[in-house]
Amino acid sequence: xxxxxxxxxxxxxxxxxxxxxxxxxxxxxxxxxxxxxxxxxxxxxxxxxxxxxxxxxxxxxxxxxxxxxxxxxxxxxxxxxxxxxxxxxxxxxxxxxxxxxxxxxxxxxxxxxxxxxxxxxxxxxxxxxxxxxxxxxxxxxxxxxxxxxxxxxxxxxxxxxxxxxxxxxxxxxxxxxxxxxxxxxxxxxxxxxxxxxxxxxxxxxxxxxxxxxxxxxxxxxxxxxxxxxxxxx
Length: 233
Prior knowledge:
Layout: H1 2-8, H2 16-36, E1 53-56, E2 61-67, H3 71-74, E3 86-95, E4 101-102, E5 107-111, E6 117-118, H4 123-131, H5 159-168, E7 174-175, E8 179-188, E9 200-204, E10 217-220, H6 222-225
């Protein structure tokens, strides 16, 4: 009887707290992994190896672009720039000549199918958009007849995000002989549904060591869109 009573009133060991502890540990590990994620600039291959490129053999300079429009490629960033109206484009320029080329006066431009001419955004412009995610900074809005009071922006972006944008932005002032420069250009595509379809990338203002401007570079984005393998990081 005594053993039967013990079996009857034995209290089972609760498993819920143990399961919750395991879940909390896993969640904490995931959060730490996300927090520890740091931006790393992708390694650049010679520009002519990218599907979307323009080669100037006589001038020995090649320019390439690689849009980071796919989710797997864009995962290198901690910020979802596409959700904030930006398209990051990996820009690569290779100098196969024996003299440096200057990029001080270069002008990059993405011409869309509807003839919109998009210029790369500055770090300040990208940060401003991220600070005001619901605001469209485009200049096509009609002014209101009665000015509304301005609301103070609270928070803004983190130092980590600011650093990521600055590190990612293309900032080379020159390309040394037999070398490649790379970085990202951020194009504002907030009001464009299919920014790459029918678009072309242009680069002007590249100069040789004597100060002579090279012929402009033109890259139809169809070269990228027609090469599915190029969408892999």
